[in-house]
Amino acid sequence: MKVGAIVPAAGRGERLGGRDKVLAPLGGRPALAWVLDALVRSEVVEAIVVVASEANRTAIESLCRSLPTTVPVAVTRGGAERALSVRAGAETLGAATKFVLVHDAARPLVTPELIRRAVDAVQRHGAVVAAVPVVDTIKQVALDGRVVTTPDRRSLVAVQTPQVFRFDWLWEAYRRAGASLVTATDEAMLLERAGFPVYVFPGDPENLKITTPLDLAVAEFLLARRRSA
Ligand code: C5P
Known about the structure:
Blueprint: E1 3-8, E2 25-26, E3 29-30, H1 31-42, E4 47-52, H2 57-65, E5 73-77, H3 82-93, E6 99-102, H4 112-125, E7 127-133, E8 140-141, E9 147-149, E10 157-166, H5 167-177, H6 187-193, E11 199-202, H7 213-228
Parallel strand pairs: 1-4, 1-6, 4-5, 7-11
Antiparallel strand pairs: 2-3, 6-10, 7-10, 8-9
Helix pairs in contact: 1-4, 5-6
């Protein structure tokens, strides 16, 4: 198989008042349904593994069964940290997969076009992440609040998912990470630590991550605007 997708959806959604953000209703359907829809419509993904928690597994399984799709969708059990959830997804996909595309269930505004851009980019570089310029000035601060340094904004980007990697590189990065795996907040970080070159490609400012109730409201607005365009 050329491209398999992993959709980590096993988070707890604490900043959404205990509501599960991947199942939060958005434009009349669960956020996760929008992600699966975009992956299928991209026509470049051959299999999808959704990583669920114990708490949302039944709801996610029935959502996946109700999707009209020709792409096989499996549901697997996640771990306590995001990196463990994605690794469980990679195990389910298996080593016959050439490229692994990871996309957060919490980013429902992803488009088929962005997914195709990601798959294009990985064929050139082997490890790629979607990125957008940062608009804020970013400061590194100490625990007591004192500013340590202000990096030059032109050298900074904010990364999103999709992130796509050669399966063999991701697997080797897991092997080298050992116990430090759990500290990775994205998969690119693991590949970087293992010494693999990771490249950015243009992300989409609308591809926001649902973290707070404000993000949900913005996502509703953006979806409504897309529908009326
Ligand atoms: O918590 P965060 O915003 O980083 O979560 C990003 C994505 O990773 C979400 O879609 C969430 O459901 C998923 N996740 C997971 N397993 C965890 C933690 C987060 O699949 N243990």
